[in-house]
């Protein structure tokens, strides 16, 4: 058995960033169940920074994190690049759009209402009109984050400070022993004074192992549809686009010059309505581009 100051359960962005920060003054090991860090949400995220998510506390944290994301990595790569975020609303979403505007405006003066002509300038394929999109809000402070640069940067910092990442280790037992935490995975064991639960959607399972009251989290499956737009459509400058409710959002990747340009549509419970109510002329996703 090996002893550390801090054991971090989960090698996603939460676990890696916490471990990197703690490693400047503590001996830290990250225990990750999968064969590589970032396998779950952190490796599949759209990784877009915007003020549209969460309550006031979350928006405050998002705002305070901005200077960090505006930096370059230790290897000189930008951690993020600017891209506007556009919230779109049908008539039944106007109250939600106004509430979203008020919430975001508390943290940025670069958030403003836009009418149909401005929205079409930003996103020419938008379906507008009485039965479709009629109003929008733009957040000029949006940024596309580089998930790989972030995760690799945290992993390098951790290792440089003497920390470790152990993969293929699913923690299956957490007990208290002689004033310290004892974590086990099969016949392997680790001991530390502090345990960080960064198990993402499985954080309640880990909490239960430690006898801590769960919060009510459960892992859910999400779907991203990625496809190439037609050659005559330039998507590079399109914004991140989201309805004011969790119905639909999309993010263009790459640009006309990139052979890998694609569109991503994560988590669309009302996909069947998409073409008729929101976008005019997007191509049908072909089988080989569905992931
Ligand atoms: C499709 C999609 C799009 C998204 N888009 C955005 C976006 O645009 N902007 C945004 O801010 N957020 C977005 N998110 C959310 C964001 O990705 C997550 O909030 C974030 O990645 C969560 O990181 P995490 O480290 O908490 O969890 P995870 O990345 O899930 O990491 C948790 C890790 O814990 C490990 N683990 C679990 N149980 C154990 C155990 N018992 N022992 C050891 N290891 C264990 C898991 O294997 C996993 O690797 C998106 C998410 C998805 C899925």
Write out the CATH superfamily name of the largest domain: D-Amino Acid Oxidase, subunit A, domain 2
Approximately what portion of the residues adopt beta-strand conformation? 25-35%
Q: What is the level-2 CATH architecture name of the largest domain?
A: 2-Layer Sandwich
Distance between the termini: 41 Å
The coarse silhouette is elongated
At CATH level 3, the topology of the largest domain is D-Amino Acid Oxidase, Chain A, domain 2
Low-pLDDT residue spans: 255-262, 267-277, 281-291
Order of strands side by side in the largest beta sheet?
6-7-5-14-15-16-13
Name of the level-1 CATH class of the largest domain: Alpha Beta
Return the domain count: 2
Q: Indicate the mean pLDDT.
A: 87
Q: Taking Cα atoms only, what radius of gyration do you get, to the nearest Å? A: 22 Å
| Helix coverage percent | 10-25%
The number of helical runs is: 8
């Amino acid at each position: 058995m090996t002893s550390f100051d801090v054991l971090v359960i989960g090698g996603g962005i939460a676990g890696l960033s916490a471990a990197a920060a703690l490693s400047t003054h503590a001996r830290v090991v990250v225990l990750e169940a999968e064969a590589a860090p970032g396998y779950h949400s952190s490796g599949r995220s759209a990784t877009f920074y915007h003020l549209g998510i969460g309550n006031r506390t979350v928006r405050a944290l998002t705002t305070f994190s901005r200077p960090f994301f505006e930096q370059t990595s230790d290897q000189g790569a930008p951690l993020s690049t600017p891209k506007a975020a556009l919230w779109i609303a049908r008539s039944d979403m106007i109250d939600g759009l106004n509430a979203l505007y008020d919430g975001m405006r508390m943290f940025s003066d670069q958030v403003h209402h836009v009418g149909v002509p401005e929205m079409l300038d930003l996103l020419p394929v938008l379906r507008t009109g009485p039965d479709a999109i009629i109003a929008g809000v733009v957040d000029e402070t949006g940024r596309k984050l580089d998930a790989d640069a972030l995760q690799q940067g945290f992993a390098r910092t951790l290792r440089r400070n003497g920390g470790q990442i152990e993969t293929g280790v699913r923690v299956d037992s957490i007990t208290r022993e002689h004033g310290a935490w004892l974590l086990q995975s099969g016949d392997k064991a680790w001991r530390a004074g502090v345990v960080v639960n960064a198990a993402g959607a499985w954080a309640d399972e880990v909490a239960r192992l430690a006898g801590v009251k769960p919060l009510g989290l459960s892992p859910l499956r999400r779907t991203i549809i990625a496809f190439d737009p037609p050659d005559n459509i330039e998507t590079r400058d399109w914004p991140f686009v989201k309805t004011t409710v969790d119905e639909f959002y999309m993010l263009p990747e790459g640009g006309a010059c990139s052979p890998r340009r694609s569109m991503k549509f994560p988590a669309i419970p009302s996909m069947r309505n998409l073409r008729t109510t929101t976008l005019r002329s997007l191509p049908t996703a072909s089988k080989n581009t569905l992931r």
